[in-house]
Write a structure and sequence with these properties.
By secondary structure, this protein is mostly helical. It has a domain of 114 residues. Helix content is 48%, strand content 0%. The protein contains 8 helices and no strands. Helix 1 packs across helix 4 and helix 2 packs antiparallel against helix 4. The radius of gyration is 16 Å and the shape is globular. It starts with 10 loop residues before the first helix and ends in a 9-residue tail after the last helix.
Protein backbone atom coordinates (compact mmCIF):
# COMPACT_ATOMS: atom_id res chain seq x y z
CA UNK A 1 0.00 0.00 0.00
CA UNK A 2 1.18 3.53 -0.72
CA UNK A 3 0.58 6.55 1.46
CA UNK A 4 1.79 10.03 2.28
CA UNK A 5 1.46 10.97 5.93
CA UNK A 6 0.28 14.59 5.99
CA UNK A 7 1.17 15.38 9.62
CA UNK A 8 1.40 19.13 9.00
CA UNK A 9 0.76 21.52 6.11
CA UNK A 10 4.45 22.40 6.14
CA UNK A 11 6.12 19.49 4.32
CA UNK A 12 9.48 20.05 6.03
CA UNK A 13 7.81 19.79 9.44
CA UNK A 14 5.92 16.72 8.28
CA UNK A 15 9.16 15.04 7.19
CA UNK A 16 10.81 15.80 10.54
CA UNK A 17 7.88 14.13 12.35
CA UNK A 18 7.84 10.98 10.22
CA UNK A 19 9.00 7.84 11.99
CA UNK A 20 12.21 6.40 10.56
CA UNK A 21 10.39 3.71 8.56
CA UNK A 22 8.11 6.28 6.93
CA UNK A 23 10.96 8.55 5.88
CA UNK A 24 12.29 5.85 3.58
CA UNK A 25 8.91 4.46 2.54
CA UNK A 26 7.63 7.95 1.73
CA UNK A 27 10.50 8.54 -0.67
CA UNK A 28 10.01 5.16 -2.33
CA UNK A 29 6.22 5.00 -2.46
CA UNK A 30 5.55 8.64 -3.31
CA UNK A 31 8.18 8.58 -6.05
CA UNK A 32 6.24 5.70 -7.62
CA UNK A 33 3.00 7.65 -7.27
CA UNK A 34 4.54 10.74 -8.89
CA UNK A 35 5.81 8.87 -11.95
CA UNK A 36 2.57 6.91 -12.28
CA UNK A 37 0.47 10.08 -12.04
CA UNK A 38 2.31 11.81 -14.88
CA UNK A 39 2.03 8.72 -17.06
CA UNK A 40 -1.72 8.63 -16.41
CA UNK A 41 -1.82 12.16 -17.85
CA UNK A 42 0.11 11.40 -21.01
CA UNK A 43 3.77 11.61 -20.01
CA UNK A 44 5.61 9.21 -22.32
CA UNK A 45 5.82 5.69 -20.90
CA UNK A 46 9.37 4.68 -20.26
CA UNK A 47 10.63 1.44 -18.72
CA UNK A 48 12.79 3.52 -16.38
CA UNK A 49 9.69 5.13 -14.80
CA UNK A 50 7.68 3.40 -12.12
CA UNK A 51 4.08 2.57 -12.91
CA UNK A 52 2.09 1.14 -10.02
CA UNK A 53 -1.14 1.56 -8.07
CA UNK A 54 -2.91 3.65 -10.76
CA UNK A 55 -6.30 3.29 -9.01
CA UNK A 56 -5.06 4.10 -5.49
CA UNK A 57 -6.63 7.28 -3.99
CA UNK A 58 -3.23 8.97 -3.57
CA UNK A 59 -2.26 8.27 -7.19
CA UNK A 60 -5.64 9.42 -8.46
CA UNK A 61 -5.35 12.62 -6.40
CA UNK A 62 -1.81 13.30 -7.65
CA UNK A 63 -2.95 12.75 -11.24
CA UNK A 64 -6.00 15.01 -10.86
CA UNK A 65 -4.28 18.42 -10.84
CA UNK A 66 -0.78 19.73 -11.37
CA UNK A 67 -1.06 21.53 -8.01
CA UNK A 68 -1.78 18.21 -6.28
CA UNK A 69 1.20 16.62 -8.03
CA UNK A 70 3.46 19.53 -7.04
CA UNK A 71 2.34 19.25 -3.39
CA UNK A 72 3.17 15.53 -3.35
CA UNK A 73 6.45 16.31 -5.11
CA UNK A 74 7.30 18.82 -2.35
CA UNK A 75 6.36 16.25 0.32
CA UNK A 76 8.58 13.64 -1.33
CA UNK A 77 11.47 16.09 -1.74
CA UNK A 78 11.20 16.95 1.98
CA UNK A 79 11.18 13.24 2.88
CA UNK A 80 14.23 12.79 0.66
CA UNK A 81 16.07 15.59 2.46
CA UNK A 82 15.07 14.01 5.77
CA UNK A 83 16.42 10.66 4.49
CA UNK A 84 19.76 12.37 3.79
CA UNK A 85 19.76 14.02 7.21
CA UNK A 86 18.82 11.05 9.37
CA UNK A 87 21.25 8.62 7.79
CA UNK A 88 24.07 11.05 6.94
CA UNK A 89 23.82 10.73 3.17
CA UNK A 90 25.88 13.22 1.22
CA UNK A 91 24.18 16.15 -0.51
CA UNK A 92 24.94 14.60 -3.89
CA UNK A 93 23.58 11.17 -2.90
CA UNK A 94 20.08 10.29 -4.13
CA UNK A 95 17.69 7.58 -3.06
CA UNK A 96 17.19 5.52 -6.22
CA UNK A 97 13.45 6.18 -6.34
CA UNK A 98 13.88 9.94 -6.03
CA UNK A 99 16.57 9.87 -8.71
CA UNK A 100 13.94 8.49 -11.11
CA UNK A 101 11.56 11.38 -10.30
CA UNK A 102 14.40 13.83 -10.89
CA UNK A 103 14.70 12.56 -14.49
CA UNK A 104 11.23 13.91 -15.32
CA UNK A 105 11.13 16.95 -17.59
CA UNK A 106 9.46 19.61 -15.43
CA UNK A 107 8.17 21.63 -18.38
CA UNK A 108 6.68 18.52 -19.98
CA UNK A 109 5.03 17.62 -16.66
CA UNK A 110 3.54 21.12 -16.32
CA UNK A 111 2.20 20.96 -19.89
CA UNK A 112 0.33 17.67 -19.45
CA UNK A 113 -3.44 17.55 -19.78
CA UNK A 114 -4.25 17.68 -16.08
CA UNK A 115 -7.97 16.97 -15.49
CA UNK A 116 -8.45 19.84 -13.00
CA UNK A 117 -6.94 23.29 -12.85
CA UNK A 118 -7.30 23.71 -9.10
CA UNK A 119 -5.54 21.73 -6.41
CA UNK A 120 -7.52 20.15 -3.61
CA UNK A 121 -6.71 18.65 -0.23
CA UNK A 122 -5.03 15.24 -0.22
CA UNK A 123 -7.20 12.16 0.27
CA UNK A 124 -7.50 10.71 3.73
CA UNK A 125 -6.04 7.22 3.37
CA UNK A 126 -6.46 6.72 7.10
CA UNK A 127 -9.00 3.95 7.51
CA UNK A 128 -11.51 4.81 10.20
CA UNK A 129 -9.46 7.80 11.39
CA UNK A 130 -11.18 10.54 9.43
CA UNK A 131 -11.66 14.19 10.28
CA UNK A 132 -12.90 17.35 8.55
CA UNK A 133 -9.24 18.37 8.11
CA UNK A 134 -6.78 15.97 6.46
CA UNK A 135 -3.94 16.91 8.86
CA UNK A 136 -6.11 15.98 11.84
CA UNK A 137 -7.07 12.68 10.19
CA UNK A 138 -3.42 11.79 9.63
CA UNK A 139 -2.46 12.78 13.17
CA UNK A 140 -5.21 10.54 14.58
CA UNK A 141 -4.11 7.75 12.26
CA UNK A 142 -0.45 8.13 13.22
CA UNK A 143 -1.02 8.42 16.96
CA UNK A 144 -3.28 5.38 17.08
CA UNK A 145 -2.42 3.04 14.21
CA UNK A 146 1.31 3.63 13.72
CA UNK A 147 2.47 3.67 17.33
CA UNK A 148 4.25 0.32 16.88
CA UNK A 149 6.58 2.06 14.41
CA UNK A 150 7.48 4.96 16.71
CA UNK A 151 11.22 5.32 16.30
CA UNK A 152 13.13 8.44 15.36
CA UNK A 153 16.86 8.73 14.67
CA UNK A 154 19.28 11.53 15.40
CA UNK A 155 17.64 14.45 17.18
CA UNK A 156 14.13 13.69 15.87
CA UNK A 157 11.55 12.86 18.53
CA UNK A 158 7.89 12.06 18.94
CA UNK A 159 5.72 14.92 17.66
CA UNK A 160 4.29 17.15 20.41
CA UNK A 161 0.69 16.49 19.34
CA UNK A 162 0.71 12.67 19.74
CA UNK A 163 -0.88 12.62 23.20
CA UNK A 164 -3.62 15.03 22.11
CA UNK A 165 -4.55 12.73 19.20
CA UNK A 166 -4.25 9.43 21.05
CA UNK A 167 -7.57 7.72 21.74
CA UNK A 168 -7.12 5.37 24.69
CA UNK A 169 -9.87 2.90 23.89
CA UNK A 170 -9.04 2.90 20.16
CA UNK A 171 -12.44 4.24 19.13
CA UNK A 172 -13.42 7.67 17.95
CA UNK A 173 -16.45 9.36 16.48
CA UNK A 174 -15.67 11.19 13.21
Amino acid sequence: MVNAFWLDRDVDQTAAWLVDAHVTSSVFECSMVLTTAVQLNGYPHDDALYYTHPDHPLTQWAADAHGNWRFLHAYTAAAHEEWRYRWDHAADEYHGSWAVVETLDGDAVADLGWPRETARDPPQVTGRWTAPDYVDAYRYYYANEKRDLFEWSKDRTEPPWVEEYTVEDGSRES
